[in-house]
Amino acid sequence: MDELLRYLKEITGTEVKLTLSNEGALSSSSFLYSGTAESMADRINKKPHRFIERAGEKGGWLLLHMSDCFFEMLIEEGRRLPYSPRGDYAEKRLELLMRHGRLPCPRDAKVRLLLIKGALGRLSDLELLSISHHLDGMDRVCLEHSLGGVAEALMHYRARLREEES
Questions:
Q1: Which residues, other chains included, contact 166 with Cβ-Cβ below 8 Å and sequence gap of 6+?
Q2: Taking the mean position of all CA atoms in its chain, how far away is CA 60?
Q3: CA–CA distance, 116 with 101 (Å, rounded to integer)
């Protein structure tokens, strides 16, 4: 994440704080004056970064659509965090999903949003339990079979959040 923030500072010439947009993209946390976000998006798109698939502007906000590489970095970052088992229901659900192996992050908006929330320390147990409930039938089963790496990272991010809260 630090690499991304350094890149954005170089492009924009100022410190950029990131927040989640309603669409699940990362956005700058401060509103930018008319035309500024669009010109920043153009600069980012002309000088791409491996973590950013594309940049855009919406209503004066700079929106960053993150690449597969970014989500793989979040998974690896999460796996490196210390973990101590708690044994609650949400953890058991993640352990079940982890059995499917360490696969790359699926291109599912809800899963990617949960991974970002986990990295930012804003993840609830309810969100973890419903990680695949937005899909039905075989689509849900297929998604769950691809969540091993994400589930492991989320478990470690959750453990970090518990440590910080106590």
A1: none
A2: 22
A3: 20
Q: Are 150 and 106 in contact (CB under 8 A)?
A: yes
Strands (E), 17-136: 18-20, 26-28, 52-58, 61-66
Specify the DSSP class assigned to residue 23: T
- Residues with Cβ within 8 Å of 26's Cβ and at least 6 positions away in sequence, in order, are 18, 19, 20, 63, 64, 66, 116
DSSP-based three-state secondary structure for 161: helix
Tokens of 26: 């990362």
Q: Which residues contact 7 (CB under 8 A, 6 or more apart)?
A: 49, 51
d(CA 108, CA 135): 10
In sequence order, the 6+-apart residues with CB closer than 8 A to the CB of 13 are: none
Q: What CA–CA distance (Å, rounded) separates 44 from 132? A: 32
DSSP 47: S
Contact 121, 160 (CB under 8 A): yes
- 77-133 tens-digit pLDDT: 999 999 888 888 999 999 999 998 888 999 998 899 899 889 888 888 899 999 999
**How far is residue 114's CA from residue 10's CA, in Å, rounded to a whole number?**
28
The reported pTM is 0.84
Whole-Å CA distances, 6 to 9, 49, 53: 5, 11, 17
